[in-house]
Design goal:
Blueprint (H helix, E strand, L loop, with lengths): L9 E6 L9 E5 L15 E6 L2 E10 L9 E4 L1 H7 L6 E6 L6 H8 L6 H12 L5 H13 L3 H13 L12 E5 L9 H11 L3 E5 L9 H5 L9 H11 L1 E5 L7 H13 L4 H15 L3 E8 L8 H18 L2 E8 L7 E2 L1 H12 L7 H15 L10 H10 L2 H13 L11 E6 L4 E6 L1 H10 L9 E4 L6 E2 L4 E7 L2 H13 L3 E4 L9
Parallel strand pairs: 1-5, 2-4, 7-10, 8-9, 10-11
Antiparallel strand pairs: 1-6, 2-5, 3-4, 3-6, 12-15, 13-17, 14-16, 14-18, 15-17
Helix pairs in contact: 2-4, 3-5, 3-9, 4-9, 5-10, 6-13, 6-14, 6-15, 8-15, 10-11, 13-14
Length: about 500
């Protein structure tokens, strides 16, 4: 024990090799000489102080002196990185009361509408890692039950202001975003180089996957670094007019990535939280013009036109409030876009389209061109109605591919494993007929079961789409895995429900 100049006992920092995800965790010995563990039993969290640094952490108690000795306090990897004090430093440890903003969360659970100041306080505590995962889940579920228009605006603004706010010396800064849910659909990685090749500024920041087998950041990471800092990102945009980076690393709306980490476990993705998440990041990224893609289909996040209309109005309401020019379009969400599901397979599709490979998936090419056309029309120098022709010229001429390679070179080489899974299984058609429906949600789950996006080489290669004729035993798609246990699980899951409906086949044979 060491009291130093403080009246409170101090412990020496030890780094404990524990990956606790997002959560800060501190470990003390049951035989601690500075702290009596029984005093802390009524507290779920402790406060660590050294000079001006303060860290809140969940407390664990151990009987293993090899892990943490009586004079030590162990910090998990996330806590050690955030506290940023060297091993052996003396730190004061005291019980910590829950954040005051949790009172507002409890009020929300009980049906109370929160003031903007209360929401700002919650977001501030989230950003400073003062909430446990259980408390974050309580916040998410309380807002999922009901959210007023004023609460939505306050949440979007608080999230946007909590981190980095980028400013670009450009009158027009364009961006696009798809709400997700459709396997493949990696249009951003085709649209960005097309728009950047034209000369418009498109600093694309993307999240990692929440409930899907891949997000744009996961797929781009197969080709290049995505964890760029703010200054690195600005340099890439200055040189290339655009980028494709992970928004979490440039600290755009950092509370959003914290919420996403819990949303992923809960498979929770409410409309209001989705709008706040997307638009807070676009606000922080300095976007002036934004295109929103809303896929609609039986197994998509939006199943019909009425749902899409309500979400469109929500985006327009928030966009108008913050002065962002928003265009919302609905697209076909009945089936996957492209041939690949999973980071490596989707990256292959993207490069095939940009390279004008004859075998490139035509649906990915066509949808990307149409989305790029909408963004190009924001250029006041481009005559109205010529956006699609301009986009196609940039793609066909190789200018988009050249721009993509320039972006890849500027962001730097990939540092992750990018080989395709070697464990494969073909899923056969159960009978003769025509593919009449594909369950996008089911294919997403199968690809995640196979290991995507954690294993970038895991996923699904699709052979048959809606309208294609198949014969019994002909492969509908191929599943790729890297791990034997995951391979066994996904094989059994695909056998139980392949996610395809063959016209003429009894519906019970492939449950959708």
């Amino acid at each position: 024990m060491n009291t130093g100049n403080s009246s409170r006992p101090q412990l020496k920092i030890r780094r404990v090799n524990l990956d606790t995800g997002r959560e800060n965790v501190a470990v003390i010995s049951r035989r601690s000489k500075a702290l009596r563990p029984e005093v802390f039993r009524g507290f779920s969290r402790v406060e660590l102080r050294r000079n001006s640094r303060v860290l809140l952490a969940t407390l664990l108690i151990t009987d293993d002196d090899a892990l943490v000795g009586p004079e030590d306090i162990g910090l998990s990897d996330p806590a050690f990185r955030r506290f940023a004090e060297p091993v052996g430093s003396l730190v004061t440890v005291t019980p910590s009361m829950p954040p005051n903003s949790l009172d507002a969360v409890r009020g929300k659970i009980q049906g109370r509408t929160l003031a903007a100041s209360e929401i700002a306080e919650i977001v501030n505590d989230l950003t400073h890692f003062r909430y446990s995962d259980m408390e974050i889940a309580a916040f998410l579920i309380s807002f999922a039950s009901f959210t007023t228009s004023d609460e939505l605006l306050a949440l979007a603004q608080a999230m946007a202001q909590a981190g980095t706010q980028l400013k670009w010396n450009k009158p027009i800064v364009v961006d696009k975003h798809c709400i997700g849910g459709i396997p493949g659909n990696r249009t951003s990685m085709v649209v960005v180089p097309i728009v950047a090749a034209h000369g418009l500024t498109i600093p694309k920041t993307s999240s990692r996957a929440i409930t899907s087998p891949a997000g744009t950041a996961d797929t781009m990471e197969v080709l290049a670094r995505v964890d760029l800092g703010v200054e690195e990102m600005k340099e890439v945009v200055s040189a290339c007019h655009g980028c494709l980076v992970w928004g979490g690393h440039v600290n755009l709306a950092p509370a959003d990535d914290i919420l996403i980490s819990v949303e992923r476990a809960l498979s929770l993705d409410t409309r209001e939280q989705m709008v706040a998440s997307i638009l807070s990041k676009k606000l922080a990224a300095g976007s002036t013009h934004l295109l929103i893609d809303l896929p609609v289909g039986p197994a998509a996040k939006l199943t019909n036109a009425n749902e899409a209309m309500r979400l469109r109005k929500l985006f327009e309401f928030v966009g108008d409030h913050f002065g962002i020019s928003i265009e919302v379009i609905t697209t076909d969400g009945r089936q996957p876009i492209g041939s690949g599901i999973g980071p490596v397979l989707e990256a292959q599709d993207v490069m095939a389209v940009l390279s004008n490979d004859p075998s490139a998936p035509p649906d990915l090419r066509e949808k990307s061109l149409r989305l790029a056309a909408h963004l190009l029309e924001y250029d006041p120098e481009l005559r109205g109605g010529t956006g699609y022709a301009r986009a196609r010229h940039l793609l066909d001429s190789g200018a988009a591919l050249k721009q993509m390679q320039k972006i890849i070179d500027a962001q730097g080489p990939s540092v992750c494993r990018t080989d395709l899974g070697t464990l494969t299984i073909d899923v056969p058609a159960p009978g003769d007929g025509v593919v009449s429906a594909i369950d996008c949600l089911r294919l997403n789950r199968l690809a995640r079961t196979a290991g995507a996006p954690i294993d970038k080489g895991a996923g699904i290669r699709i052979f048959k789409k809606i309208g294609d004729r198949v014969e019994k035993g002909e492969p509908l798609y191929r599943i790729y895995s890297l791990d034997h246990s995951e391979h066994g699980l996904v094989a059994a899951a695909a056998k139980s429900n392949a996610g395809y409906l063959i016209d003429g086949q009894r519906r019970g044979e492939t449950e959708l």
